[in-house]
């Protein structure tokens, strides 16, 4: 199956999550989307749940010799999260990656400020946090986002994505109280494969969805 676009994926998730809300399993929900692709997905979910929409910014930590190869990620104020098996395979140490992690944390803070434009983070104490992305392939950025969100004290943390790889869903099972995926294909490939329309979003488009005035 393929989703027409991210918003259709969000509506598919919204059906599952509104059922949880009606059952009393999502108390006072907050939707936290990973920019940029998770924001239109999260917008559909927030509308369906009658919940506020905010962002949780996560940044990939790439290998020094291959920046596109994610060996870890950072999100919020939490320490970096690394894939120890991949580090061992590549002969890398966390200490070697400190300069890259610091650079990504600086970019993370810049983006948080841009997306919030002076607004503080939503208080998650006693609330249900729904962390949303447009797809979960390896799970490194999702894991960093979940750990950062859990530090803020929600009573329940749910990871929601229209499409998830089997491997990532299994590996992330201990990082969220529940993982909700509309589709878990037998073979994953890339996130974009599961959408007919999968454009790159701009910061301005994200700000429009969040109703933030620059």
Give a summary of the structure in a few sentences:
This protein is of the alpha/beta class.
Q: Can you put this structure into words, describing what you see?
A:
The chain is an alpha/beta fold and 214 residues long. Helices cover 37% and strands 21% of the residues. The chain is built from 7 helices and 8 strands. It has helices at residues 6-22, 38-49, 84-90, 98-116, 140-150, 166-171, 203-210; strands at residues 29-33, 53-55, 58-63, 66-75, 81-82, 128-132, 156-163, 178-183. It has a 5-stranded parallel beta sheet with strand order 2-1-6-7-8, with helices on both faces. A hairpin with a 2-residue loop joins strand 3 and strand 4. Helix 1 runs parallel beside helix 2 (38-49). It is globular, with a radius of gyration of 16 Å. The chain starts with 5 loop residues before the first helix and ends with a helix. The model has no long low-confidence stretch (mean pLDDT 93).
Morphology:
globular
Q: How many angstroms does the end-to-end distance come to?
A: 38 Å
Average of per-residue pLDDT values: 93
Per DSSP, what share of the residues sits in E-state strands of 2 or more residues? 15-25%
Q: Strand-and-helix sequence, N→C?
A: HEHEEEEHHEHEHEH
Main sheet attributes: strand count, strand direction, barrel closure = 5 strands, parallel
* Number of E-type strands: 8
What's the helical proportion of residues?
25-40%
Class from helix and strand fractions: alpha/beta
Tally of contiguous helical segments: 7
Evaluate the radius of gyration: 16 Å
Low-confidence stretches: none
Q: Which oligomeric form is depicted?
A: single chain
Q: What order do the strands of the largest sheet run in, or round the barrel if closed? A: 2-1-6-7-8
């Amino acid at each position: 199956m393929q989703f027409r676009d991210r918003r259709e994926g969000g509506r598919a998730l919204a059906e599952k999550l509104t059922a949880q809300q009606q059952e009393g399993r999502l108390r006072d929900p907050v939707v936290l989307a990973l920019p940029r692709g998770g924001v239109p997905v999260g917008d559909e979910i927030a509308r369906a749940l009658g919940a506020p929409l905010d962002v949780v910014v996560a940044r990939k930590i790439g290998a020094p010799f291959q920046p596109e190869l994610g060996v870890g990620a950072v999100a919020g104020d939490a320490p970096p999260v690394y894939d120890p098996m991949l580090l061992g395979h590549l002969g890398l140490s966390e200490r070697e990656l400190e300069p890259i992690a610091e650079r990504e944390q600086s970019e993370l803070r810049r983006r948080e400020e841009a997306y919030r434009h002076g607004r503080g983070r939503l208080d998650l104490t006693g609330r249900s946090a729904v962390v949303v992305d447009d797809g979960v392939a390896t799970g490194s950025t999702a894991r960093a986002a979940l750990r950062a969100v859990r530090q803020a004290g929600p009573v329940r943390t749910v990871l929601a994505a229209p499409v998830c790889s089997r491997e990532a869903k299994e590996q992330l099972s201990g990082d969220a109280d529940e993982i909700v995926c509309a589709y878990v294909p037998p073979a994953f490939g890339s996130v974009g494969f599961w959408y007919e329309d999968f454009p790159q979003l701009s910061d301005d488009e994200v700000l429009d969805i969040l109703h933030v005035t620059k």
